Amino acid sequence: PSRHGTLALVVILLLRCCCFSFVQSQPSPSSLYTILVSQPRQTIWGLGFEIQSDSIGSGNNGLPNETTSVPHDLVDEEKMRLYKDMLTGFRYVRLAMGLYLRGNDPSQKLIIERYAGQMEGLANMTKFAGLEGADVEYWSPAPYWKSNNQYISGHLASYNESFLNDFGDALIQDIKYLGSHGIPVKMWGLQNEPPVGQQAGSCVYSCCGYTTAQYTQTFSIVAPRIKASFPSVHVHVDSWGGQQSQPLLARNATMLQYIDGWTYHRIGADSTMQIEQQKEFLDGAAGKVVYNNEYEYLDGKTSPYRCINTAQSIMNWFVFEQSPTWFWLHALKPTYNSESEGYGLGLWRPWDDNNTDHYPQIQKGYWDYIGSNWNALAGFLRYMPWDVVRVEVTEPTASGTGAIRTEQRILAYLRPNDKKLVIVITNRNETANYDFVIKIPQLVSSSTTFSGHLFQSNVTDKALGDIHLVANDQETNNNGHHHDDDDDNDDDDDGGGPKDDDAADTFKRTIQ
Q: What is the DSSP string of 309-347?
């Protein structure tokens, strides 16, 4: 059936409302996509998220004394539902040091839990969700190190070598503290959004401003100490503009040995940015990976269109910037914060929220999904295990322009264990259908079955039926899906992986 103007994501994997049918006719070059499984690209590690493990004022205004947070506020069964139903599939949790983890030791040099059970809750989340570990980043260091002796606003109190050596030692102790409390640290960043907070009064929650020179000076002393103590920790720069905003480090051969990746915040950006500005993101990377480690919508709004835009942001970072990972912002946000619908994959009701006129379905201590945010990621979390390998896809160009199609996107990858092929397709055009004609020159076997899964802003993992491909263009008709998941049942002794042969099966998917 035709469903014009309905946005969706499909995992053969498909994104958008879609119908699939196989075609035996010669495909039009204007809609032909060729999956080149013999041309592997980067390994995709998995996805990340942030957790609000302490309170923040509505509209990100201030640091209340209340302990409004997750998993702390949730009743026991809702904690486990969060871990198993939402967070399983993610690889990393981003910990906002000095913001959502902002307790202090007596000297105010170190960051520890602010309330009893905070670390235990984060450790349980890490364990039961099956996370590998944390990306530890500072919104602000502990007050002792700040010019104003507080988390909000300000900058470092000094940049002399002795001070920065002591500062580096304190940051090492923070990592050890997390590890000793059941949270392995896998990634580390000196400062979230270093330009923020440079001007007095420009920040109303935790931040620490750095000029480019200050960031370079601090990193040059601190990062070698971090790497010496934790050689396997992935160090990234700078959760804002990557190598473009830290050119002094990007051109410093000595410092490059301490940098593993460049991180960007292209928050709520149109997914087309990754296509049109590819050169900007890759120039000067010096062989380091490039990725986006925060994504949300700052106006606090969500929509079906944004659902597909978010999914395409993930896909385009992987395809055009060859990123190994991508981070959404929050798992859950409180029901009474104005920014919550643009920031969270879901909402929880804190125990002091008595206004049941909004989100009446959510009880205190319980949570619910924000479908138009959650369903943009859900297909990847369910059908993209850690360490998949992206494969090349040749794409048609937009009619009359010769440009890559920005509204119709595709991603293909091989799962790490069984080498099964997964294809993700989207159509962000709200009014026009689009036919994806997909060709696979290196077929897994002479008879291959794909299963389809549909995700929309209000639909989670709708089965679209099986798609049977037979070599030499002998195809059958079936309704299809969102994520297409290779479900080859062939028993040949080829290990289940792709092999080169002359078969070139072609099938068509119409996303409406």
A: HHHHHHHHHHHHS--SEEEEEEEEEETT-TTHHHHEEEE
- List Cβ neighbours of 287 (8 Å cut-off, separation of 6 or more): none
Residues 6+ apart with CB under 8 A from 193: 207, 239, 240, 265
| Strand 92-97 versus strand 8-11 pairing type | unpaired
Rg of the chain in Å (alpha carbons)? 24
Length of the chain counted residue by residue = 512
Token look-up 């804190």 returns 350
| CA atoms of 52 and 122, how far apart (whole Å) | 10
In angstroms, the CA 451 to CA 38 distance is: 22
Distance of CA 402 to the CA centre of its chain: 30
Whether the Cβ atoms of residue 145 and residue 170 lie closer than 8 Å to each other: yes
The predicted pLDDT at position 490 comes to 37
Q: Please give, one letter per residue, the 3-state secondary structure of 257-286.
A: CCCCEEEECCCCCCCCHHHHCHHHHHCCCC
Q: What does the alpha-carbon distance between residue 343 and residue 333 come to, in Å, rounded to a whole number?
A: 7
Q: What are phi and psi of 49, to 5 degrees?
A: -145, 165
Run means of pLDDT, 10 residues per run, the chain, 512 residues? 50 43 45 92 98 97 98 98 98 98 98 98 98 98 97 97 98 98 98 88 91 98 98 98 98 98 98 98 98 98 97 98 98 98 98 97 98 97 98 89 92 93 92 86 68 92 81 36 50 35 50 57
Please give the Cα distance from 71 to 56 (Å, whole number): 15
Tokens encoding 482: 């969102």
Return the pLDDT at 477. 31
- Contact status, residue 222 vs residue 167, Cβ threshold 8 Å: yes
Alpha helices in 192-303, H assignment, sequence order: 212-229, 242-245, 247-250, 253-256, 273-276, 278-282
Q: Which pLDDT belongs to residue 227? A: 98
**Quick one: tokens of 223?**
């990062």
Q: Residue 464: enclosing H or E segment and its boundaries?
A: strand 459-470
pTM as predicted: 0.91
Measure the CA–CA gap between 88 and 81, rounded to whole angstroms: 10
